[in-house]
Amino acid sequence: MCDLHDQHEHGTTATGTGPALSRRKIMQILGAAGVTTAMMTAEADPAMAAADDSSVAEAGGYQAPTGLAQDSPAKAAALGWIDSNSARITGLNEEIWEHAELSLREWNSSLAEAAFLEKAGFHVEFGTAGFPTAFTATYTLGSGGPVLGFSGEYDALPGLSQRKGVGHHDPLEYIHDPFAPGYGPGHGCGHSALGTAAAAAASAVAQAARRHRLPVTVKFFGSTAEEALIGKTYAVSKGVYKGLDAFLDWHPSPANATGWGTTNAMTAVTFTFLGVAGHGGTPLGNKSALDAAVMTATMSEFLREENLAPSGRLHWVINNGGDIPNVTPEIAEISYYVREGSPARVQVLLDKVIAVAEAAAKASQTSVRHRITSSCWNQLPSRSFAELLHENMKQIGPPTFTDEAQSLAKSLQESLGLPQLGMHNKVAELTPPNPVFLGGGSTDVADISWNVPTVSMGAALAPIGTKMHTWSTAACAAAAPGQAAVIAAAKYLAATAIDLITQPERLAELKSEFADRTKGVRWQTALPDGYEPPMYEPPAWFLKKTGQKWPPANITWPPQRVVSQEKLSSLGPELAPQT
After folding, report:
1. Closest CA to 170 of 179, 160, 181
2. Using an 8 Å Cβ cutoff, are 318 and 334 in contact?
3. Residue 316 three-state SS
4. Is 445 in contact with 456 (CB distance < 8 Å)?
5. What is the pLDDT of residues 171-206, one digit of tens each?
6. Which site among 135, 315, 525, 528 is 20 to 30 Å from 487 CA-CA?
7. What is the reported pTM?
8. What is the 3-state secondary structure (H, E, C) of 56-115?
């Protein structure tokens, strides 16, 4: 999500939170290459062409339509259900926040979210697409109604532990290591709130449909590992989202906004270098895998001037660089997120990064292998869906932030050296995407969007000016700002879903737009052939509680061991003794 939140590196798919760049300014940034790219897109890159709406922005004077969102008894019932269950909803957010479980290991968080939906009458099945902590919850009433999907996430991020409601950096979990101090995990992307609001919206729609006898199938997808962009991407490739008529998504953000801009496609790749260990005091003949990783990092930085367009992003971390300085690292790993405007453009940049790693291995006399850990498309927008959602957001209004919420926001802004503007207390106007795509975040919702009409929006959980993936977001997620955002987001999603049930013409309109945009574009997963998703073995108690067996059929277990078989480097014949 995550990654849409900073545009949501998931504005959060928000186009309306600031002034759009003018066509002249964009041309100054891009030069003539911007014109050439725009002219070639439709023929050379159908994925970018399908997501393009530059003509709307260039025409100017866009006005969001009105009269789309309609009051109805069912909508009133859904919103009323959220209000009457607000304590349960905010309590679920707080419970998941306290667990702060990392990707693929959300044992308690997934159970809590599933239990909430079961209480609302949903049938829950764990093990979606083979992931132990992924589940699908289904509620069906009657026949012939639309099939609506909601997106739930609940994974935390490493190193972002923070005390709830504290306006300065104060990790809740501090790791006392004399050589490598650090912090525990935390919800620095607000997924505790994301999954909670989506579950509340799905439940509200189900309750309203039952009360007013509206045929519908509501499906909630509890998704694992969004922070690694694995859960939904792989699940789509296995057909998990087939049969949906519409899919509703949201993400915590510093703003209340929606839009129909696209996102970056992305491939995550990890390079493993293997060398030969030896004493650091007698290094001759050793082969340092860390040297190879550092050379890869250094050389990849030289790609930026001539090989990285304004729409591209290249970021890396050395996630295994050795343990102690007096042992030459025999194994080292460096991981990259390679982002560009479409899968085809990602592949071109990825090939250059792979070439860099292979050159580093040759120079360091190590061996290298790489594995793709995830790969997703750019998001396919839906203008008609965004327009419907936006009008519901305007009618419902921004989150109701208390004085406590605004005070915390200003304290955090002061700690970060930002203007003390508090929380975003309005719904941003709906504006077209900028004429030329300048890149941003990525999301595994993107692959869903090429298979079913999809909308995304952001609700203000973090203070104005702050960024996602930070301790400051973790401070807010289950405190006063986050609890207000959870209720508002649940209402935005539920109201929009009810309109799709009670106004078939709205659903028909967004399905027609989807058909037009995908004409001539054949989606296929960007994951490589034979891809096996990474997994952790669940605790026995979790398997028993969810009725699962280990391992699932789609992975090899135990995984193949990675062990260096490299030989020490030769220095040539011994030198004659010195006399």
Report:
1. 160
2. yes
3. strand
4. yes
5. 999 999 999 999 999 999 999 999 999 999 999 999
6. 135
7. 0.93
8. HHHHCCCCCCCCCCCCCHHHHHHHHHHHHCHHHHHHHHHHHHHHCCECCCCHHHHHHHHH
